[in-house]
Write a structure and sequence with these properties.
The complex is a heterodimer of chains A (615) and B (344). Chain A is an alpha/beta fold and 615 residues long. Chain A is built from 20 helices and 23 strands. In chain A, helix 1 (23-37) runs parallel beside helix 6 (163-174). Chain B contains ten helices and twelve strands. Classes of the chains: A alpha/beta (615), B alpha/beta (344).
């Protein structure tokens, strides 16, 4: 039969199944196919902290959402248009997020009495009116996959496991995706077992052909390529982009990168990625604990490396004493905090922005550091370079506040020209700097950057001792002098406060907005999408987004004061709002949610509309 | 390779311009003098030597050495020194620590540095007390010790630092005494020659808060009958007249002290620091009694195992050997790896 082809401008698909069903991989592959087609994309994986929760249960559900469109998009989408549910648990866990009218593709083979009972369905939702209002496509995914692979030399278990490729084939057909990259991927993934390549390719094709021939799918969709800047792109997650940014910082500074890290969700992928790049001189050390990880990084910085440590909130808490030592030693150090929902273990695979207070203030004594935050997955690359630049130029610890949402989400990344990346070369001290020509003064500062000389061990004539005890200005000798301590505390504060950072830019296309939405970090996408939605409806709203949280841009106070209302949405209970109110005496309104999930554009749009009404 | 040029350094070259501020009479002075006196022997330029310490009286040490140095934070010196040593294999990195610093707050870093066999020379000044905080008991204080924080006597059992180091897979373990400069320097020499972690416990007197803790090992009247001076390849006998010896009784797990006169010569253990099985060195470490009788000093164990530094650097070197293009080009290739697409 001839299928109808319908054009769409955007689609949101959520693949959901048991943790063992391969939904992350399926989503990844669909995303890659979609990228090849030239759509703009944004993805959001959502998986349990348990490696293998009991099969078929609600805690074991893993999902991957992909949003693609023929125009530039900012978020992975508020609500799916299509849900692929591999079992009853996946259906139950995700149904509430689905608007009426959405398509649901279910694997009917898994809707057994036993599996239904596991998630508390007393009757089969495929048979009662649970799914009234949705377009349900019942597909016997498992048995059709097994049937399609009857002639293949694979076990029944391996045949069943290929059902995700059947689903991918079906969805790829439905949305007219080019699948060459998936076939190549399968060849690479199962290179050692050709029979599995053949089986998975066959399952994929069976899914595709099923779409083409069955009556239950009468429509095929197309989403045209988006207009994007010319250049070469790849789809990238925040953690991968951040890792590459650190490698790039090593290349552009000419310094070896030393990563000290202790495994922690959701930051471990950075350790994994950097471990692969030894050919760039990157040394990675999996330390015995978070404290050793930052200690080793600081030791490496002392020796002339770019010392980096990567972790999440609980790890930053443990590193706090060493970060203060780095403040006293005035050495470069990059601390990456991929934030997750806290306190304590909290929800390790869910997102939050609640470490801002800790990054800004969470140390003993007056111990200011620079703090920056990436706004999107691809932006993690540039944020890592910026963190390295500040650390190296100003000889200071820099905290880079990523979060689970940007770390695991992905988007297309326009590959930068390497030559255009910032030049991060540094000059080590090589000769005495005292007036007598023979003395070395380890705390004599560069008048412009207030940075002290970086004299690495191995440099003849500059032997000196540094430490956590208060140091006398210039000489670095131990000092208990009251005036000196006061001077040094103020100087360390000034060192951070005077780092030049770019002015914050305001996006106000109508030019007459009276309300400004201020955000930081990963909320950029949802806030941007909400502002866009309002503007499309003729309402004026301005958006500003902070990358630098310490020091803050010099123009921020003026910007904030030029609006009647400032709204600050944050995935915490108002940490930036608190700083803004204290620092600029601006009566900012917070909009705060800590549900472990990013804001939806729709909720922000609704909230902002209320604010606009009341200005 | 050509012969290294003799640098002709002296102890004076290793004295910094800082005023030494330990309490008068502290054992740390003797250790400092011994280390400064030994350093020229290394024939390593001062700029390539780094002393890293934690917190405590002993940890002031780096300030007094005219080398590179870092006085860091409590317990973390082995971690910081690991990062330095791994990233800078050209340096000679020494860690100075105390019983509280290394075994209490920093216990985790110590054992992991030792199991990794990081190329560090770790000098643990053991005075069995907290000095800088003015006299609380330490993880090496004897049970029942009365201190400011334990007026009724301490309730917890102490660590045996050498047993701990051996349990942590240390490849070099030695003990010496602050007041015996010659012996101290002989142990430093052996430690410096060792590739990998060298762990040296130095019995050090705190004359303010735990004075005389090691007197039995120092007083001429008692020391010879208490100290076992280990020498590689020599039968282990000791006592003012060599009247005691160490044997490995059949059927037992450990070593025991016997009277030499009643022991057949072939039963006396001949010291071998290179024995692969750490059980031997461990048995030696268990010989001392609570009264410090039968305390071995010298090198307990010195075995070869690749250092963490060398393995890590070798992996980097192997990866880099395959690189043919300039790093910027290599980076451009890395950024563009994976599935890419081009928009014209």
């Amino acid at each position: 039969m001839t299928k109808q082809i319908r054009q769409l401008d955007r689609v949101v698909i959520r693949f959901a199944g048991d943790s063992g069903d391969g939904m992350q991989l399926t989503g990844d592959r669909f995303t890659s196919e979609t990228a090849q087609l030239g759509n703009d994309i944004s993805t959001l994986p959502n998986f349990p902290a348990e490696i293998r929760a009991p099969a078929g249960t609600l805690p074991g559900v893993s999902s991957f959402q992909v949003h693609f469109a023929d125009y530039d998009i900012l978020t992975p989408g508020d609500a799916p248009n299509v849900l692929v549910a591999m079992n009853p648990a996946a259906l139950k866990a995700n149904l509430a997020d689905l608007p009426r009218g959405a398509d649901i593709i279910v694997n009917t083979d898994e809707f057994t009495r036993r599996n239904l009972a596991k998630v508390g369905y007393t009757t089969n939702p495929l048979d009662d009116d649970t799914l009234a209002g949705y377009v349900v496509h019942p597909v016997a995914l498992t048995s059709m996959t097994v049937g399609a692979l009857a002639e293949h030399a694979v076990s029944k278990k391996d045949a069943e496991r290929a059902k995700n490729m059947f689903a991918l084939g079906l969805l790829s057909w439905m949305y007219s995706r080019p699948y060459g990259s998936t076939l190549r991927f399968l060849e690479r993934k199962f290179a050692a077992r050709p029979e599995l390549v053949a089986a998975n390719v066959a399952a994929f094709r069976a899914g595709w052909n099923f779409g083409e021939t069955t009556d239950s799918f009468s429509v095929r969709y197309e989403v045209k390529p988006a207009k994007m800047l010319p250049g070469t792109y790849r789809n990238i997650t925040g953690n991968a982009a951040l890792s590459l940014g650190l490698v790039a910082a090593g290349v552009r500074s000419g310094l070896p990168v030393f990563l000290g890290a202790y495994p922690i969700t959701p930051a471990s992928d950075i350790l994994h990625e950097l471990s692969k790049h030894k050919r760039f001189g990157v040394v990675t050390m999996q330390a015995e604990d978070e404290i050793a990880a930052v200690g080793a990084a600081l030791g490496a910085s002392y020796g002339g490396s770019l010392g980096v440590t990567t972790t999440s909130g609980p790890g930053v808490a443990l590193k706090s004493e060493t970060i203060s030592l780095a403040v006293a030693l005035e050495l470069p150090l990059v601390i990456v905090d991929v934030q997750r929902a806290g306190p304590s273990t909290g929800m390790p695979t869910k997102t939050e922005q609640a470490d801002l207070n800790m990054a800004l203030h969470g140390r003993h004594g007056e111990a200011p550091v620079a703090v920056i935050a990436p706004k999107s997955p691809a932006d993690c690359f540039h944020a890592a370079l910026e963190a390295a630049r500040i650390a190296l130029t100003y000889r200071t610890p820099v905290i880079l506040l990523s979060d689970n949402y940007v770390a695991n989400g992905s988007e297309p990344w326009l590959l930068p020209d390497v030559e255009s990346l910032p030049d991060l070369r540094v000059e080590f001290a090589t000769a005495p700097n005292g007036e007598d020509g023979s003395t070395f003064l380890p705390y004599l500062r560069d008048p412009e950057t207030l940075a002290r000389p970086w004299a690495v061990p191995g440099t003849p004539g500059l032997e000196h001792r540094i430490g956590g005890l208060e140091k006398a200005d210039k000489t670095g000798d131990i000092s208990y002098d009251p005036a000196n301590h006061d001077f040094m505390v103020r100087t360390r504060a000034a060192r951070i406060e005077t780092i030049p950072v770019p002015d914050v830019e305001v996006e106000d296309p109508d030019g007459d907005a009276r309300v400004l939405v201020l955000g930081w970090g990963s909320t950029y996408g949802p806030i941007g999408a909400a502002c866009r939605g309002l503007r499309q409806r003729g309402l004026s709203v301005a958006q500003a987004h902070l990358r630098h949280l310490a020091p803050m841009p010099a123009n921020l106070g003026e910007v904030l004061r030029s609006y009647d209302r400032v709204v600050i949405p944050e995935m915490n209970l108002g940490q930036l709002a608190h700083v803004v109110r204290a620092k600029y005496l601006v009566d900012a309104i917070g909009y705060n949610q800590v549900r472990g999930l990013p804001f939806t554009a729709a909720e922000l749009e609704t909230m902002l509309e209320e604010v606009l009404k009341n200005v | 390779m050509s012969e290294p040029v003799a640098l002709k350094l002296t102890a004076k070259d290793f004295k910094s311009d800082q005023e030494v501020r330990w309490c008068p009479g502290c054992g740390d002075y003797a250790i400092l003098a011994a280390v400064q006196g030994f350093m020229p022997e290394l024939n390593i330029p001062r700029e390539n030597i780094v002393f890293v310490s934690g917190i405590g009286c002993s940890s002031r040490f780096p300030y007094y050495m005219n080398t590179y140095g870092m006085h860091s934070i409590h317990g973390r010196a082995p971690a910081i020194a690991t990062g330095l040593s791994v990233s800078r294999p050209d340096l000679s990195v020494w860690v100075v620590t105390g019983d509280g610093d290394a075994l209490s707050i920093g216990g985790n870093h110590l054992i992991h540095a030792l199991r990794r066999n990081v190329n560090l020379k770790i000098l643990l000044f053991n005075n069995r007390i907290y000095g800088l905080t003015k006299g609380q008991y330490s993880p090496t204080s004897e049970v029942g010790k009365i201190t400011k924080s334990t007026p009724a006597g301490s309730a917890d059992a102490p660590f045996n630092p050498l047993s701990l180091a051996l349990g942590a897979e240390a490849t070099f373990v030695a003990r010496t005494i602050d007041s015996d400069r010659k012996h101290l320097q002989s142990v430093l020499r052996a430690a410096a020659q060792h590739s990998g972690s060298a762990f040296v416990e130095i019995y050090q007197n705190c004359n303010i808060f735990n004075d005389g803790a090691f007197d039995q090992l120092k007083e001429p009247a008692t020391r010879d009958d208490h100290l076992i001076r280990l020498e590689h390849g020599q039968p282990i006998t000791f006592g003012s007249a060599g009247q005691f010896c160490v044997v490995h009784p059949p059927g037992g797990f450990g070593l025991e002290v016997r009277e030499t006169a009643n022991t057949p010569t072939e039963e006396i253990v001949v010291h071998d620091a290179t024995v692969t099985d750490p059980a031997y060195a461990f048995a030696l470490s268990r010989l001392p009694g609570p009264d410090l009788r039968n305390t071995p000093i010298g090198v307990f164990r010195a075995v070869d195992r690749p250092s963490y530094d060398s393995v890590v650097q070798e992996q980097v070197a192997t990866a880099r050997a395959k690189v043919t293009e300039p790093s910027e080009q290599q980076l451009a290739g890395l950024l563009a790896s994976g599935d890419t697409w081009t928009i014209l």
